[in-house]
Write a structure and sequence with these properties.
Elements lengths: L1 H12 L8 E9 L2 E11 L17 E11 L2 E11 L5 H10 L1
Length: 100
């Protein structure tokens, strides 16, 4: 959903000024790999601008989860965007997304 991507790109660029959000970060090292995962979660009051919000009953939050992996000298970065019925905990949302 382009709206969600654009929202998080702008919010990050502005350091989430005036955007209430929750944040969670993890760092894992294993077998020569270092992975840093960051999750930004924005809840109900900040997502009322979504055009098609009524198409997702129970929609309560949106999230961006960024994963940076370094294996040796190679670093990769991926960002995934989610809609969710979860509220309150960016950690819980990040763990649910990872297990999905």
């Amino acid at each position: 959903m382009a709206e969600t991507t654009d929202f998080f790109d702008e919010a990050k660029r502005m350091n989430f000024a005036n955007v209430p959000y929750r944040y969670h970060q993890t760092m894992e090292k294993d077998h020569g790999r270092i992975e840093n995962r960051r999750c930004w979660m924005v809840e109900e009051t900040a997502i009322q601008w979504l055009d098609k919000q009524d198409q997702w009953p129970g929609l309560a939050s949106i999230a961006a989860i960024e994963a940076r992996r370094r294996i040796g000298k190679k670093t990769t970065k991926e960002t995934h965007y989610f809609i969710s019925s979860l509220t309150g905990s960016a950690q819980q949302l990040a763990e649910a997304a990872r297990q999905h």
